[in-house]
Design goal:
28% helix, Rossmann fold, eight-stranded antiparallel beta sheet, four-stranded parallel beta sheet, alpha+beta, 10 helices
């Protein structure tokens, strides 16, 4: 009888990326998300879907009960989380009562996602961060309203004069090009895995809705060194553990750090390879070990969401293309503004990868939206 593979519990809005990387690292993923789609079913040893709606978060009791069912008769190494916990540090602390948190604990998430505490951290580190306040000024032009602990960009909107909501804050808009750095940390040390550029799929209601990312890219001039240096100064004051990412804006006013996401993110699809599965690096970092370097993929990759522009219909037995991930089972209906799937593309250059991504998004939208017409 073959020995049972080591396992880990994981949860995210969509847990497929974590589960796929875990499988590449020789681990059985015991996964919870909101979809349990065809791809998660193919890579997770066990999985469950919970009732929920992106970008709302998990119910504490339901998630812990589901994790308990998945862990039955197994001895998981611990719990790895993705998107969906930025505003739930207390839930991470409850999970930690039963399983080790493999990554940043609830206290760290609380520190990074509290607007005032993060702004103060950046100031102490000498890293530029956009001005914030809790109430929008009388002249709200040039200010954004953000939900505390929000993810995915759908929560970001233009601020309204005098607006003050307990769960939101306002941040001054900074003009420039958006960059993201993927990195792995072990306490006060870190290794940058690579840089990506992100773009949005705006709607009137959600002008900053996340669309996708492309990379790994070589930032121009000294920009890469500036982003790395900024992260090193922050992590020297706020130790981190495992896979993380950081969002920057580089523009006429210089480089600004917008936020740090202290968990595995959407760009796993860009950096993860068979030779260097990111969850393997993540677990090594949790044990205090960082690799000497990171080769990453040989090609430029673009990945992101295909959003339904109008109601769409997925028939039973739909022939999903091989470049689609997070594929739902048919029959299913999608409302306008819901994600149809994740699209992957690659190319020799950023332009090639991004162009192929856009073409594939247009194709899948045409095929599914036409069926609902």
């Amino acid at each position: 009888m073959s020995a049972e593979r080591p396992s880990l519990l994981c949860a995210a809005f969509s847990a497929r990326q974590i589960a796929m990387s875990a499988k590449r690292a020789g681990l059985d993923a015991l996964a919870v998300d909101f979809f349990h789609d065809l791809d998660l079913e193919g890579v997770a040893a066990r999985g469950e879907a919970l009732a929920g709606h992106y970008p709302d978060g998990f119910s504490d009791a339901e998630l812990i009960e589901a994790l308990g069912r998945l862990a039955k008769d197994r001895a998981p190494l611990g719990f790895v989380y993705g998107a969906g916990f930025e505003d739930r540090p207390a839930l991470l602390e409850r999970i930690a009562e039963r399983w080790p948190i493999l990554g940043n604990d609830g206290a760290t998430v609380r520190a990074l996602k509290d607007p005032e505490r993060f702004a103060a951290l950046c100031e102490r580190a000498g890293v530029a961060h956009p001005e914030i306040c809790r109430e929008a000024p009388d002249d709200a032009a040039g200010w954004l309203s953000k939900r505390i602990g929000g993810a995915g960009g759908s929560h970001v909107r233009g601020a309204v004069a005098g607006e003050a909501e307990p769960e939101r804050y306002v941040q001054r808009f900074v003009e420039g090009e958006r960059w993201s750095a993927g990195f792995v940390a072990a306490g006060t040390r870190l290794l940058v895995l690579g840089f990506t550029r992100q773009w949005t799929a705006p709607t009137p209601e959600e002008p900053f809705r996340y669309a996708g990312a492309v990379g790994p890219l070589d930032p121009p001039g000294t920009l890469g060194a500036q982003m790395t240096g900024a992260l090193e100064r922050v992590v020297a004051l706020q130790p981190l553990t495992g896979l993380c990412s950081a969002d920057f804006v580089a523009g006429p006013q210089g480089l600004h750090l917008l936020e740090i996401n202290p968990r595995a993110g959407a760009t796993i699809d860009i950096f993860d390879t068979e030779a260097e599965p990111l969850i393997g690096l993540h677990l090594e970092a949790c044990a205090g070990r960082l690799p000497q370097g990171f080769a990453g993929p040989a090609e430029i990759r673009a990945t992101g969401l295909a959003w339904a522009g109008v109601p769409a219909s997925l028939p039973a037995g739909f022939d999903w293309p091989p470049h689609a991930s997070d594929r739902s089972r048919g029959p299913a209906l999608f409302q306008a503004g819901e994600p149809l799937c994740t699209i992957l593309a690659s190319g020799a250059t950023e332009r090639d990868a991004a162009a192929l991504f856009e073409a594939r998004v247009a194709d899948i939208r045409l095929r599914l939206e036409r069926k609902a017409a």
